Amino acid sequence: MMINWTNSIWKTSKHSAFTDLCAFAGKLFVSFREASDHMSKDGDIRIVICDLDGKKINGVSLKMANCDLRDPKLTVMPDGKLLMNAYARCYDNKGKWLHSRSLCWFSQDGLSWSSHHWFAEKNWWVWRIRWQDGQAYGFAYKRAQQQLNLYKGNPLRTFDCFKTDALSLASHGLGYPNESDLCFSQNGNAYAVVRRDADTFTAQWGVAKPPYSAWQWYDLKQYIGAPVILQFDAKTILICGRAWLAGKFKTALWKIDIETKKLTLQIVLPSDGDCSYAGMIKSEQGIYISYYSSHIDNQSHIYLAHLDL
Fold first, then answer.
1. Burial class (CB in 10 A: 0-12, 13-18, 19+), 258
2. What would the pLDDT profile of 77-94 be if each residue is shown by its tens digit?
3. I want to staple 279 with a disulfide (CB 3.0 to 4.6 A). Which of 20, 119, 161, 264 is the partner?
4. What's the CATH architecture for 2-308?
């Protein structure tokens, strides 16, 4: 693979970060958080719509009073609607934290969005949603529990915990599993990558057969922050995320052999410092990756990259 182009699609004086990417209605939709800084309480969601050449066409923003909206993710539902899920840290009028909870919106065109809908338990962060046979699946984590639970259903209706303790410190001896992604192969097997921020800090590779209630975990011996995964072919899955390389954070792309579990670094995208949190899709044109980085003027900007196959 090689990088064809990398476009800066959004830059302001605010902290723009934590992206995702989805192809919808023949266009590219990039979602991200905009706020005063990495952990401020004033996070809004912005969506930038681009053509397939990475040129900005349109955009929209979503806000909620007294809520910090974080890490928006985009998927296309089985009925063709665009779904966005995020995590809201909710505060009272004096700025005191009340609780946090996952929520979602849907849209027919990516510009006009429904009212929000809360789902899953409070203080359990459903990081990302993937669809299989008409059902949505997503891992949720809670730092205090150092545990990952698997949810299933439809976040607009019923989305319940399907498998508790899929990965945890208590049961697996692996501390603080958190950000994750899933994909499903043609034979129905599920694969997952999970970030960890304790003990060895190494990411875990998960494998499960239907009905996805029994998971096997393998150590990737590599730190991977905010992983996003994509099945490239029958034998290979691509993983994009934050890497620690030569003493610096970078946005990197790996491939993993499904059979051997061997992880191989492919490309390091133009990035440095506060960076990564990518979205990734495959199309006839190649691989598109959204991410943020502060390698230019130490200011976090949103980027869209295109990779030739």
1. middle
2. 999 999 999 999 999 999
3. 20
4. 6 Propeller (2.120)
